[in-house]
Amino acid sequence: MRRRPPTFASFREFYPYYLGQHSHPISRRLHVCGTLLALAVALAALVTGRWAWLLGAPLAGYLPAWVGHYFFERNVPATFSHPLYSLRGDLSLLVEVLTGRMPW
User: Fold this and answer.
1) What is the pLDDT along the chain (104 residues), one digit of tens a residue?
2) What is d(CA 34, CA 26) in angstroms, rounded to the nearest whole number?
3) How are the residues of the chain apportioned to helix, strand and coil, as percentages rounded to the nearest 5?
């Protein structure tokens, strides 16, 4: 029987859960690389005017992240139950890694 995903009243409440779901270093690296790749694809779409590329940005970001979840974390991505908090978590994780506050 599947358990219900936890509920959260705010991102502040959600973020510790998010970090707990990303404890494996390879998973974190895949998330950071995926987020950077998604941002690069989105930026390339804006710069070149090839708006169809924007459709590829989520795939570029989520595919590496989901590999991290399924093969390293062995858990279900929070994207499925908390998509907006999860996206914000991805961006927060990226900032924390780039600023040295989170181990790479």
Assistant:
1) 567 779 999 999 999 999 999 999 999 999 999 999 999 999 999 999 999 999 999 999 999 999 999 999 999 999 999 999 999 999 999 999 999 999 88
2) 12
3) 75, 0, 25
Tokens of 25: 């270093």
- Residue 44 makes CB contacts below 8 A (sequence gap 6+) with 50, 53
Query: How far is the C-alpha of 101 from the C-alpha of 32, rounded, in Å?
Result: 14
C-alpha dist (Å) from residue 25 to 1, 20, 82, 99: 29, 12, 22, 16
What is the Cα Rg of the chain in Å?
Answer: 14
- Positive or negative: CA dihedral 77, 18, 99, 26: negative
Q: Which two tokens stand for residue 32?
A: 């950071």
Q: Global pTM?
A: 0.90
